[in-house]
Amino acid sequence: MTIVKVDIQGNPYDIHVEEGILGHAGEYLHPVANNGRLLVITDSNVEQHVWPKFQDALSKAGVSPALFTLPAGEQAKSWQHLEALTDWLLGKHVERSDHIVALGGGVVGDIAGFAAHIVKRGCRFIQIPTTLLAQVDSSVGGKTAINTSAGKNLVGAFHQPSMVLIDPAALETLPARELSAGFAEVVKYGLIDDPDFFLWCEENIQRFFGGDMDAREEAIVRSVTAKARIVAADEKELTGKRALLNLGHTFGHALEAETGFSNKLLHGEAVACGMVLAFRYSARMGLCDEGDAERVASLLGGAGLPVTLSDAGCSVDGKRLTEHMKHDKKRSGGQLPFLLARGIGKTFLSNDVELADVAAFLDEEGTR
User: Fold this and answer.
1) Which of 117, 267, 280, 324 is catalytic?
2) What domain range includes position 195?
3) How high does pLDDT run on average in the chain?
4) Active site residue 77
5) Which one of 23, 82, 108, 111 has the fewest beta carbons within 10 angstroms of its own beta carbon?
6) Residues 94 and 227 grouped into a single domain
7) Final residue of a domain: which of 130, 158, 173?
C-alpha cells in the first residue's frame, strides 16, 4: 500500500494505491456511507468487468450501493447524460453529506464529479479509477467537465474528491489500446520536469506492457505523486504551474475535435500525438534538439500510440486544426498559450505562438 497525499489547502485528501484494493474497498467506503448507502456511477464496460467484484466487497462491509450506468465512451460526457445523471441522483434523494462514487475511467470521473459539484450546490465524491489514464491523471486534481459542440471540457468545475482508491490489478481487464492510451499520460510527467522518469519509462516499457505489476504500480505512484505536487502548488491554474499538465493537450484536443470526440481517437492517443507535435514544433523553433523530439516519438510509437497526423487519422490542413484550437478554454485576451519544450523534462508555457505559424507547421507535419 502506498499513500500519496494531495495537500490542497482546505481540502486535502489521500490517494491509496494498492494491488487488490478493490476487493476490500468496503473498509474505506463503509465509514463514509450515509446510513450504509452509497451512490455509484459507472459505465457499461466497467459494470460488466469490475462491478461484480466491487459490489461484493461493499456487501461484505455492510454497504448497500445504488448503481447508475452510463454508456461507455466519450459521448457520455454530454448535457443529455448529465441531465439523466442529476435527475437520478435527485430521485435517490441525494444529500450533501452523501459520497458519490465514480467507478470507471476518465469519462465517468469527469461527469460524476461535475454532477457532484452542481447537485444541491455540492456533494462529496470519491474517485475509484479503473483505467490507466484515469489512475495516473484525471482522478487526481479535481477537474470535472462535460463536452459541448464547441469543444472538449468547456463546461465544468474544480471539485476535489474526498478520496482516491487505485487498484493496479484493475488494468488486467483493460484492452491493450486503453492501456497504451494511459501510458501517454505516464510519459507526460517525465516530459514536464522529470527526465529521470522519462528514462525509467524508456527502460521499463517492456516490463510495463508485459504485465509486471511492480512496474505498473511504480508508474502509477510516480505519476500521481508528480500530479499531486503540481496541483497542490496551483489548484486552479492561476500561476501557470498546473498548466504544465496540459502538455500535448492543445494539439490533442484539436485532433479529438476533428475526429468527433469518438473512439476513432482516444484521449490518451490524442495527447500522445499532441506531445510529439509539441516537441517537433519546439525543435522547429530552435528551442530543443530534433533528437529529443524523435526520442519522444520513438517511446510513444513503441507503446503503439499515434505519433503523426496520419497515425491519428487527421488528414486535414493546418488551418482547420487551428480553428479547433480557438475554442480552447485556456485562451485569454485572444492569445492561446502553448506548452513547448527546451528539452526532455524542460517544458514551459509560451504566450507568443502565432496560430498561423502553427497551421503552417501542421501542414508540414501532414506530409509525414
Assistant:
1) 267
2) 176-365
3) 95
4) no
5) 23
6) no
7) 173
β 338-341/143-148 pair status:
unpaired
Residue 237 is among the residues annotated as catalytic for this protein: yes
* CATH number reported for the structural domain that contains residue 24 in this entry: 3.40.50.1970
Please report which confidence band the pLDDT of residue 238 belongs to, taking 50, 70 and 90 as the band edges: confident
Q: Which stretch of 172-181, 235-244, 304-313 has the lowest confidence by average pLDDT? A: 235-244
120-165 tens-digit pLDDT: 999 999 999 999 999 999 999 999 999 998 888 999 999 999 999 9
Contact 135, 182 (CB under 8 A): yes
326 is catalytic: no
Query: Does the pLDDT value for residue 23 go beyond 80?
Result: yes
* Residues ≥6 apart with Cβ < 8 Å to 171: 131, 132, 135, 179, 216
Question: Which of 122, 139, 173 is the last residue in one of the domains?
Answer: 173
> Are 76 and 181 in a shared domain?
no
Amino acid at site 202? E
269 counts as catalytic: no
116: nearest Cα among 61, 154, 163:
163
Catalytic status, residue 249:
yes
Instruction: State the average pLDDT over residues 264-290.
Output: 97
Catalytic residue selected from 185, 218, 256, 269: 185
Q: What is the mean pLDDT of residues 277-282?
A: 98
Percent helix, strand, coil in the chain, to 5, is 50, 20, 30
Set 45, 147, 153, 246: catalytic member: 246
Q: Is 30 a catalytic residue?
A: no
pTM, full prediction:
0.95
Number of separate domains in the chain = 2
The reply to whether 161 and 219 lie within a common domain is no
pLDDT of residue 334: 62
Regarding whether 140 and 234 lie in a shared domain, the answer is: no
Catalytic residue among 253, 256, 269, 324, which? 253
